[in-house]
Design goal:
It contains four helices and seven strands; from the N terminus they run E-E-E-H-E-H-E-H-E-E-H. The protein has one domain: Glutaredoxin. Helix 2 links the parallel strand 4 and strand 5. By secondary structure, the protein is α/β, with parallel strands linked by helices. It starts with a strand and ends with a helix. The strands form two sheets. Strands 3-5-4-6-7 form a five-stranded mixed β-sheet, with helices on both faces. The chain has a two-stranded antiparallel ribbon with strand order 1-2. The chain binds zinc ion (ZN). Zinc ion (ZN) binds next to loops.
């Protein structure tokens, strides 16, 4: 039986979860918060590093900023995708305005940029806003 390592979005504790239980709303063993909420997690540099260093579920990060029109347009689409892909992919957002050092570290030159990570390594990058259909297609390709 395979299992995944998940970081609690509330207390940052490490949790081992069997793959078979990913779709059953697993809770943090320490603080009982849902480990895989239906919305994207809010990242800063250290939180993102902790996810990348530990989590085994594929992670997709939306690098965005509050002043970016296309980012705001894509936000509801990205939020909905987090619900749809729950238990398969982890979705997160990083505000590049508030966390400029982290954005620079990942080489973000335009926003929105989506980066997909598997086992902490970048596997795909998409710059520019996607429609709901395009985003779904992009995410499903990662999940194969
Ligand atoms: Zn917790």
């Amino acid at each position: 039986m395979s299992e995944h390592m998940l970081i609690c979005p509330a207390c940052a504790a490490k949790n081992r979860v069997p793959s078979s239980r990913l779709q059953q709303a697993p809770l943090c063993g320490k603080c009982k918060v849902e480990l895989l909420p239906a919305e994207p997690l809010t990242m800063d540099g250290p939180r993102l590093d902790r996810l990348l260093a530990n989590e085994t579920l594929p992670l997709v990060v939306d690098f965005w900023a509050p002043w970016c029109g296309p980012c705001l347009q894509m936000a509801p689409v990205f939020n909905a995708a987090a619900g749809e892909m729950k238990g398969q992919l982890r979705l997160a957002k990083l505000d590049t305005e508030a966390h400029q050092a982290a954005a620079a570290r990942f080489g973000i030159r335009s926003i929105p940029t989506l980066i997909a990570f598997v086992q902490g390594k970048e596997v795909a990058r998409q710059s520019g806003a996607l429609s709901a259909g395009q985003l779904r297609q992009w995410l499903q390709a990662l999940n194969r």
